[in-house]
Amino acid sequence: MVRAYIHIRVEPGKVPDVVKQLKAIPEVKEVHSVTGPYDVIAKVEVADTKALTDFLITRIHKISGIRDTMTSIILD
């Protein structure tokens, strides 16, 4: 099991829509609107690093309103 935090920058005014879409994805375990350089942080759990790559490309990056992401794999 691989767990990661996905830090997400969102287009202005789209945070509620992006949060709603993220919460509907089973692999997303937590979603929070935050202050700072990113607008949203999502904690995800997937099978392995290949699954994480596929998840980012096929699920996260296709959500309308997401500008860019930065992913941090949880080590402990």
Can you offer a commentary on this structure?
This protein is an alpha+beta fold and 76 residues long. Helix content is 28%, strand content 39%. The chain is built from two helices and four strands, in the order E-H-E-E-H-E. The protein has a four-stranded antiparallel β-sheet with strand order 2-3-1-4. A hairpin with a 6-residue loop joins strand 2 (28-33) and strand 3. The protein is globular. The mean pLDDT is 98.
CATH superfamily: Lrp/AsnC effector binding domain/regulation of amino acid metabolism (RAM) domain
Please state the overall shape, judged from the principal axes of the Cα atoms.
globular
Cα distance, first to last residue?
Answer: 12 Å
- Strand line-up across the major sheet: 2-3-1-4
Pick out the low-confidence regions.
Answer: none
What key phrases describe this protein's structure?
about 80 residues, globular, four-stranded antiparallel sheet, single chain, alpha+beta, Alpha-Beta Plaits, about 30% helix, 4 strands
In short:
With 76 residues, this protein is α+β, with helices and mostly antiparallel strands. It has helices at 15-23, 49-60; strands spanning 2-10, 28-33, 40-46, 66-73. It has one domain (2-73): Lrp/AsnC effector binding domain/regulation of amino acid metabolism (RAM) domain (Alpha-Beta Plaits, 2-Layer Sandwich), CATH 3.30.70.920.
